[in-house]
Amino acid sequence: MEGTRQKTADASTPFHKVLLFLERSSARRDITKLVYSGSLAFFLLIVITPAIAGIVAQLLTLPSLTLGQDVYARMQSAVVWSFVIGLTVSSLDILAGIPLAWLIVRRPSHLTTILDSLADIPFLIPTVALGFSILEFWSGPTGISQIFGSGSLVSPGTLLIMLLHFAFSFPVIVRVMVGEFLNYRETYEVAARTLGASAFTAVRTVTIPILRPGVLAAFLLALARSLSETGATIVVAGAFENGVVFIRNARDAGLSAAVAIASLVLIVASLLVFAAIKIIAPRFRVAPLKVWPSLEKKLSSRIGVGSRNAGSLIVFLIFVLLPCLFIAFPAAESVAAGILGEALAGMGPWGKFWSSMLLSYGVALLATSVNIVFGLPVAVMIARNRFSTRMTRIVDALVDLPIIVPSLALGVSLSFFWSNIGALPEFWVLVLAHTTITYPYFVRAMAASIQGIALELEEAARTLGATPLRVFRKITLPLTRYSLLSGAILVFTRSVDETGATTAVSKVLKTAPVLLVDWIRGTVQVTPEERALGVGFLVLTSFLALVALRLIALRKPKGRS
Question: What predicted TM-score, i.e. pTM, was given to this entire model?
Answer without folding.
Answer: 0.78
